[in-house]
Amino acid sequence: MISEDDPKRPANHMSWQATTLPIGIGAVALLAGALLMLVPVRTADAAARDFAAAQACAPGLPPRAEAQCRSSVPATLERYGMSGGLSRTEHIEVVRGDGKRRRVDLEQDFHRTVPAAGDPVRLVSWRGEVRYVTYGPGYAHTAFTEANPYRAYAVPFGWGALLLVLGALLVWVGSWQRWLSHRSRRADPWQIGVPTVTLILLAAGVVGLPMIGDARIEEALYLSGAGAGLAVLVIGAVWLYQRVRGDSDTIVVAPRRDERVHVIEAQVLGDNTVFGPKPYLVVAPGVLAFSIDPTGTHGRTPLPSGLVLERVRPVFASDPGAKDLYVGRSARPCLVAQCRDGEREVLIAVRRKNMRWLVGALPQADPAAVPDRS
Length: 374
Fold this sequence. Notes:
By secondary structure, this protein is α+β, with helices and mostly antiparallel strands. It is 33% helix and 24% strand. Helix 3 (154-180) runs antiparallel to helix 4 (190-212).
């Protein structure tokens, strides 16, 4: 039996691939993400601020001075085009006042208010590139081009944020497995699962915000910070809940019984010489047996008549075959029915949704004979 005095998972039981490797990769990712944020993102932010502060060019400026102000050139729309599917791109072809034709690639959504061919437009340039196009009555409508200074930060910011979040996750996972994993016997501790899910969702939001949406850098930084704060709150709330709940590994599963035959996928952990490699468990009135048949009709091996259920618990890292556990279509999540047949312990792994049928079919062990594991 497992008692409270039994050791939890050893602190050094994992290989360097599960500890040192993720820490090293995570540290490199954190460094690369920080460099992206400090160099190209800051450069793009500075350029956006310069563009916002730039004024219209005065007549007669030399070319170098004209590059730092906003120059405007009149043109006539000749043709509007759109290409691509999900990643649709738009462009216009214009004829400038000096007769030169030019194609301008637009950022997005120009088609909603596209002027007709022959309508006047103005090309506004800054630092040698067309940054946006104005058109419509009084040139009231604005369409930014792909050289929009306000969006130049998006790609390095997205990659930098992704590397920072995933780098932090890898460092945490490696550190937990190297120095803290002895605090939990579970094969899938919440200290790994909850941060992984939370930070992956955070990474998806932080990356998608600038690269898919229209947020400028100030909005992206604000919303990313809010998302990071929310992630910390979620992880902290789960930690507090676990502290209040206690360190019990016993899971309460309400038993279910009916008159039907249930064939569920299951696996015996450890010594399986009695049942053999039979992946199906047949649960029915008066029947509790392993079978090689998905219908549960043939090749049945009954479970011992003296088998009793001590408790239902998560999969432990120390369980035989826990690393290779695969029940049905999914390796996880599984629960383990910790049973006993006389002096022999029998561990049966079943998918969480099917455990209720096994609990309903097994007699319960005498609570006085089962040590307290709460």
